[in-house]
C-alpha cells in the first residue's frame, strides 16, 4: 500500500509537471504558509499545491509541511473527501512525522463527517473508529488521545442506534428470531447508549414469538418429510431408497435445528422475564 501511494505521488508530480512547463520559485511556499496563517484558505490551497508540485528548491521537509498544511486547508474548508486523500497520503509517506497524531485525528474526524446517517452503511464510521483507536494505542500521551476517546464514544452511540434500528425493522417484519439476535447484541455491546429496559422487553417479546419467523418453513419441512416417507415405502430400488433416506435425514436435521432454536428462545425469554424490575 505504501509503495502504491508513493508511486502515485511521484506520478502526480510528473503528470502535473509535464502538463505545465511553468515553474515557480520557492516563494509560493512561503506565501502559502502566510495565507494559511491568515485563514485565506482558497489562496493557501492554490499556493500550497503549486509549492508541492511546481516550486523549485523545495526540500523533503518543505514538501512534507506543505502537504500537511494542504490537508488542513481541505479539512477547514469541510472538503472532507479531499482531506481524507491528503491525510492518508501524508501518514503513509511520513509515518514518523511529529504531527501524525493530529493527522490521524483529523483523518478520523473526516471519515466521521462523511459517514451517512445511522440507518445506512457504517463503513466510514468504522474507518473513523479505526483511526481514533490507532491514536489511543500508539500515541496515548498525545492530546489527541482524549479527543479520540470522545469521538469513539460518539461512534458507539451511532452503532447502537443503527443496530437497534435493524432490530426494530426485523421486529416490524415479523422476523422475531432475527430481531432477538440484534436486541441481544445491542444490550451486550452498547448497554450505556440505549434504554435497557425497553430493549430487554422487546428482546423478550421477540424470543417468545421466534416461532412465527419459522412457522411456514417448519410446515414445509414436515410436508417434505411426509412426502419422502411415502416415496421410501414405495421405492423398491435399494440405491434410490438410500438417496431418499439421506435426503429425509437432512431435512429432519434442519427441522430439528429450527425447533430447537425456538425452544431455546422461549426458555431464554422466561429467564429474562424474571430479571425485569
CATH architecture of the largest domain: Alpha Horseshoe
Radius of gyration: 30 Å
For the terminal residues, how far apart are their CA atoms?
A: 54 Å
- Strand residues, percent: under 5%
Global geometry:
elongated
Major β-sheet, in short? none
Low-confidence stretches: 1-8, 13-20
Could you name the CATH homologous superfamily of the largest domain?
A: Tetratricopeptide repeat domain
> In which range does the helix fraction lie?
over 70%
Structure report:
This protein is mostly helical and 277 residues long. The protein folds into three domains: 1-95, Alpha Horseshoe (Serine Threonine Protein Phosphatase 5, Tetratricopeptide repeat); 98-206, Serine Threonine Protein Phosphatase 5, Tetratricopeptide repeat (Alpha Horseshoe); 209-260. 81% of the residues lie in helices and 0% in strands. It contains twelve helices and no strands. The protein has helices spanning 2-19, 27-37, 41-54, 60-76, 80-93, 100-114, 123-138, 143-172, 176-189, 196-208, 210-234, 238-273. The longest helix is centred in the C-terminal third of the chain and has 36 residues, at 238-273. 29% of the residues are buried.
Q: Keywords, please?
A:
disordered N terminus; mainly alpha; 277 residues; Serine Threonine Protein Phosphatase 5, Tetratricopeptide repeat; 3 domains; 81% helix; 12 helices
Amino acid at each position: 500500500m505504501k509503495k502504491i501511494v508513493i508511486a502515485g505521488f511521484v506520478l502526480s508530480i510528473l503528470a502535473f509537471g509535464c502538463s505545465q512547463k511553468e515553474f515557480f520559485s520557492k516563494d509560493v511556499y512561503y506565501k502559502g504558509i502566510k495565507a494559511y496563517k491568515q485563514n485565506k484558505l482558497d489562496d493557501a490551497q492554490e499556493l500550497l499545491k503549486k509549492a508541492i508540485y511546481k516550486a523549485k528548491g523545495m526540500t523533503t521537509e518543505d514538501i512534507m509541511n506543505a502537504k500537511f498544511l494542504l490537508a488542513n486547508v481541505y479539512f477547514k474548508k469541510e472538503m472532507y473527501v479531499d482531506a481524507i486523500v491528503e491525510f492518508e497520503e501524508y501518514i503513509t509517506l511520513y509515518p514518523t512525522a511529529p504531527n501524525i497524531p493530529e493527522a490521524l485525528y483529523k483523518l478520523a474526524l473526516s471519515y466521521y463527517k462523511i459517514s451517512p446517517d445511522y440507518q445506512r452503511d457504517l463503513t466510514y464510521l468504522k474507518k473513523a473508529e479505526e483511526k481514533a483507536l490507532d491514536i489511543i494505542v500508539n500515541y496515548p500521551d498525545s492530546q489527541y488521545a482524549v479527543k479520540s476517546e470522545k469521538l469513539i464514544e460518539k461512534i458507539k452511540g451511532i452503532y447502537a442506534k443503527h443496530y437497534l434500528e435493524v432490530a426494530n425493522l426485523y421486529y416490524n417484519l415479523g422476523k422475531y428470531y432475527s430481531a432477538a439476535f440484534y436486541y441481544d447484541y445491542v444490550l451486550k455491546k452498547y448497554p450505556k447508549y440505549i434504554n435497557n429496559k425497553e430493549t430487554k422487553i422487546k428482546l423478550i417479546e421477540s424470543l417468545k414469538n421466534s416461532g412465527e419467523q419459522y412457522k411456514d418453513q417448519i410446515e414445509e419441512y414436515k410436508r417434505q418429510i411426509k412426502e419422502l416417507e411415502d416415496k421410501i415405502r414405495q421405492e423398491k430400488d435399494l440405491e434410490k431408497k438410500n438417496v431418499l433416506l439421506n435426503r429425509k435425514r437432512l431435512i429432519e436435521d434442519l427441522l430439528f435445528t429450527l425447533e430447537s432454536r425456538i425452544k431455546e428462545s422461549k426458555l431464554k425469554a422466561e429467564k429474562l422475564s424474571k430479571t425485569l424490575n
